[in-house]
Amino acid sequence: MCKEESLQFFSNSISSVVRKTVLFCDANNSIKDAAILMKQHKCSSILIEKDGKFIGIATDQDFRNKVVAADIIISNPISEIMSSPLISISEHSSVFEAFITIMKTGVKHLAVINNENDAIGVITNSDLINAQGKLPFLFIKEINKAVSYEEISKKQKQLPQSIYMLINEGAKAQNINNFVTAITDTILEKLITFAIEEIGQPPVKFAFMVMGSEGRKEQTLKTDQDNAIIFEDVNEERLESVNSYFLKLGECVCNMLAKTGYDFCKGNVMAKNPKWCQPFSIWEKYFNKWIYNASPETLLQTSIFFDFRLGYGDISLVNGLRASLFDFLDKRKVFFRYMAENASHFRVPLGFWGNFIVESKGELKNTFDIKKPMMLVVDFARIYALQNKISATNTMERLELLYKKNVITESDYDDLRHSYSYMMHLRFINQIGAIINEGREANNHINPKKLSRIEQQTLKEVLKKTEERVKLQQEFLAVM
């Protein structure tokens, strides 16, 4: 496949390659009847329906592993061997997003749904690979096969080259973020697995949380660790030994992450720090204190914690903590004013006459940090997402949900979405250029003089739109 065809393939809607034939049967149909239907229609899967809704899927693999190998009676209902819940993707999603979903979930069949949540077809990993041929997503499979952190480290070092290829093939910034996130999540899962094999099974339920850019699924090639451990509450007699285990786990995982290319957090916000390796009740107290004793100064240090998500472990602990967070926020509305005030201090790097404000001396002379204006959008999305009890942590997802909830207008949504995406795109190009073309470490500093006139003008417009959002935050601040 030539470069132009590859570019089109990446940006195509998944509906362009899906088999738009839906084979389904009722959950009470027998395993035998379902198998006959699949044979008649030459399908490797069948969707399972109950009360007018698709609740699962049965595949050739299910028949091999759950019927033949397990010797199940074929007159039993098909619901006994189906995979549930049904993993699905919107027909408007890109081929890229379908690949990421398949790689992250480990499934081989995705249901494709329309705007009414009706299934219009099924896409398989083979369909995607056959349509495109050789793809960088095999990267993730190779990480999953690794048996040591040394192997993972070697693969992680190849990430810039894969990103370089994706940029050249026209992948959107959000898709590249998704790709980097999928790789980072896969690496984290493998390293935690290695650590548990080394120190033994955890004594109670736990969750390894990721925060900051990783928590927002917005990691680039210049990143460090922001993580923590939350574990199930135990009685006083067990607390010391349980805490000791998880501190050891945190130390082991963070050290391996550092050895595979993820630098230690300069602020020491890591699971190896005893302060950030605590039981559920302590984490509740942390958030309660941050919210009830909030000030613009303290929020500078704690804002990354509000972007937490599950990296590995028990999702119920993370969901429980988020429920407590929303409950605390309900009772402390003034918190949003402090958060908005904190965000309003930042300014975009544009002078009165519309010129770029850059560093005047040192190694970073003639550059500005693109991450700072991007954080204005991040802060904006975070404040309104928390206020509206939106669990999503990704900035683009937060903006979309805010728009769907009529919290922001369509024009505001479009401005913020395009602005953030454009800045992220420049950030990736800058980092890849540093690593691939110049052989130096990546950073977030952009030299406007290295951009074309069109790029410079676009960036100025983007920065102006971003600054407008700051003013909106200030208006929001005034009415709190």
Question: What's the gist of this structure?
Answer:
By secondary structure, the chain is α/β, with parallel strands linked by helices. It has helices at 3-11, 31-41, 60-68, 95-105, 125-132, 138-145, 149-156, 159-168, 173-199, 212-215, 236-259, 280-292, 296-302, 315-330, 334-344, 371-387, 395-404, 410-437, 453-479, and strands at 24-26, 45-50, 53-59, 88-90, 109-113, 119-124, 206-210, 227-231, 277-279, 309-313, 368-369, 445-446.
* Poorly predicted ranges: 1-8
CATH architecture of the largest domain: 2-Layer Sandwich
What radius of gyration results from the CA coordinates?
24 Å
Number of helices: 19
How many domain modules?
A: 3
Distance between the termini: 56 Å
Major sheet characteristics: 4 strands, mixed
CATH fold description of the largest domain? Beta Polymerase, domain 2
Main-sheet strand order equals 9-8-7-10
What is the oligomeric state here? Answer: single chain
